Amino acid sequence: MADFIHRSLMAFIRLFVALDIIGVLPIFYGLTQDATAPERSRIARRAVLTASVLGVAFFVAGKLVFRLLNITEHDFRVGGGLILLVLAVSDLLFSGESSRAPGADVGVVPIGVPLILGPAALTTLLVLVPACGYGPTLLALVANLLIVLLVFRLADRIVARLQLAGVRAVSKITSLFLAAIAVMMIRLGISGMLGTAP
């Protein structure tokens, strides 16, 4: 029992770092700042549901999928980075109200994937299964995703408590950081493909 708890805790910590909810929260808030509270709640649920489905799928058959498609985690980094980069550039260049209004899809892409469950989290899952076992890894995944949902549901209160006034005015800065994250993901993916240090 003690060993199970230890392995679960180790898996939880590694996934918590990989998911980086602290880093995702400002981007989530920026992408949903024009949404009403019920809309933001629906987007949060859709995002976490998407991340859960993909996480469990990779948990069960990740390595098999990678082998069948002949792809690596570095390919995932580049692909996820390209998606984020396109979204960030679109937000920076086309800032009309219609482009900022969140639709149902924003909970799936980019919030669910690749912001919540991106290449880092997917790769971490693949590594944790043989290292910690299926039970501890699944428990850690569920616990982390519940924390993500709670943080998203409390986004308004957290932002108010942190006194992040004028989030709307700095939404462009958020988009710049989103673009920087995208470039970083692409850089790490290419570096991994070339076998060089990031």
The topology string of helices and strands comes to: HHHHHHHHHH
The amount of helix comes to over 70%
Biggest beta sheet summary: none
* Strand runs, count: 0
Share of residues in strands: under 5%
How far apart are the first and last residues' alpha carbons, in Å?
Answer: 39 Å
Mean pLDDT: 82
Radius of gyration: 17 Å
Low-confidence stretches: 96-101
Secondary structure category:
mainly alpha
Q: Tell me, what's the shape?
A: globular
Helix tally?
10
What does this protein structure show overall?
The chain has helices at residues 2-19, 21-31, 37-69, 73-93, 97-100, 108-116, 119-132, 134-153, 155-161, 171-194. Helix content is 81%, strand content 0%. The longest helix is centred in the first third of the chain and has 33 residues, at 37-69. The chain is mainly α and 198 residues long. Mean pLDDT is 82; it is low at 96-101. It starts with a helix and ends with a helix. α2 crosses α10, α3 packs across α6 (108-116) and α4 runs antiparallel to α10 (171-194).
